[in-house]
Amino acid sequence: MNLQEIQSLLALKAPECMSIVLPLYRTSPGRQQNDLHMRRAMEDAKKLIQSKTKGDGMETDEILHRLEEMYHAIDFVHSPEGIGLFVSTHMSRMIKFPFPVHEEIEYDDHFSRLALYRLLFTRRNFMVLSLRQDSVHLYRGEARVLTEVLNHDFPKFYEETYEYGKPEHIR
């Protein structure tokens, strides 16, 4: 998920936006409960949609269908620390959060924003300058991914151009 996709989720204003954000367990025995926890959240989301829309409309059926499809696409064995399902009539996205999240189930004119903003700010670009005795390297980073900058300036390799005389005690 890149920055533009996160920003598009934050900017979307639509009459029907369903957000399910859940914390997940990465290790057993808690990991075995992730499926049940998500199933309960899906049922709560269905009840929330029905209570707010009185259970009518093709849009709500489409949202519920998309939620069900996204549920079946979740890998509960290799789960992140949190997951978010964001569904509207215009788009649907599943986001894996690399940090703990709080449970949120919302049906509003926009998506739940707290976890998305946190993800947005953890995805900021940064640079790392690596200084070694014999070289200088520059890395560009976003979230947990580093890539080395390779251009006419980097990497720089230091080569001794002056040969110092050997110390007298070594001669």
Shape: elongated
Number of strands: 8
- Helix segment tally: 4
Briefly note the structural class of the backbone: alpha+beta
Gap between N and C termini, in Å?
62 Å
Question: How much β-strand is present in the residues?
Answer: 25-35%
Overall mean confidence score, pLDDT: 87
Q: Strand arrangement, largest sheet? A: 3-2-1-4
Low-confidence stretches: none
Q: Spell the H/E element sequence.
A: HEHHEEEHEEEE
Q: What percent of the residues sit in helical stretches (DSSP H or I)?
A: 25-40%
Radius of gyration: 25 Å
Question: Can you walk through the features of this model?
Answer:
- Helices cover 31% and strands 27% of the residues.
- The protein has 171 residues and is of the alpha+beta class.
- α2 (34-53) runs antiparallel to α3.
- The longest helix has 20 residues, at 34-53.
- The chain is elongated.
- The mean pLDDT is 87.
List keywords for this structure.
alpha+beta; 171 residues; elongated; single chain; 4-stranded antiparallel β-sheet
Quick recap:
This protein is α+β, with helices and mostly antiparallel strands. The protein contains 4 helices and 8 strands. A 4-stranded antiparallel sheet has the order 3-2-1-4, covered by helices on one side.
